[in-house]
Amino acid sequence: MPDAMPGLPPPRPIPIKERASILFLEKGRLDVLDGAFVLVDENGVRVHIPLGGITCLMLEPGTRVSHAAVALAARAGTLLIWVGEAGVRLYASGQPGGARADRLLYQARLALEEEPRLRVVRRMYALRFGEDAPQCRSIDQLRGIEGARVRELYKLLAGRHGVKWDGRDYDPHDWSSANVINRCLSSATAALYGLAEAAILAAGYAPAIGFLHTGKPQSFVYDVADIFKFETVVPEAFRVAAAFEAGRPLDGRPVHDPVAETRRRCRDAFRRADILTKLIPTIEDILAAGGLSVPEAQPEAMPVAIPNETGLGDAGHRG
Fold this sequence. Notes:
Radius of gyration: 21 Å
CATH superfamily of the largest domain: CRISPR-associated endonuclease Cas1, C-terminal domain
Strand order of the largest sheet: 1-5-7-8
CATH topology of the largest domain: Four Helix Bundle (Hemerythrin (Met), subunit A)
Number of domains: 2
Largest sheet: 4 strands, mixed
Number of strands: 8
Low-confidence stretches: none
CATH class of the largest domain: Mainly Alpha
Number of helices: 9
Helix content: 40-55%
Order of helices and strands: EEEEEEHEEHHHHHHHH
Shape: flat
Strand content: 5-15%
Distance between the termini: 17 Å
């Protein structure tokens, strides 16, 4: 497939803050038709997808993706995420851009040095709970305090909405074994993780280099998403589960599929909270708390042979 239609400029990424949030797709083939992204079902029906205006596409079981579609998604700066049913598990993701060397080194240095890392974790704590972290606490101690507060928040929300709560308990390999509230929470957090990962990559950082979370490919994704989790997706999951279990309508509509309803309400919650305008500034805010600066190129470094063009996208977009 040519990079662009004759006479038209090549596609250029739109900044994350100007995009819609997420779109879940299932049971279809993603392809490119006349330069546009389309979903083709078993009957051959084509649905056009405004790829450049979407932050990420969640590909559920039953989807296939052509080479041309992946190439177009990469050029448009849209993250492709392969997830389990209803987003219960994240299997793989395709980058919408890539880490910039200067920002990757900056992030790695913050994570490797004890004092800057602690300052970053304390800033994340303050943003998440609206108050400064306790003084003279290690990262492990702050992790324990945060875990206890999160468990209490879950209990509080369960009591407020009248949902039976036995803790966050699910098996990513057995979707049906979890109760309704845990399935709703899994679907809700998967959507938020997709947005957070797209923002991290678009800003030029690495999803794997976390501060409170470590050792996972999405450690920094979990760090960033946790800041927004209880103001966006978690309350929506409890509202849907409560309505479904009580057999009552939600906003005037019956809840037949609580997982699908949770996804829709999370999408709306992202719009109300204007989360896409907040993600990258929040990432920069928590990293700046470490007190280090983005490193300059070394004097002996080889200069850039072909300078990058100035694009419309964020710092990490290849454009």
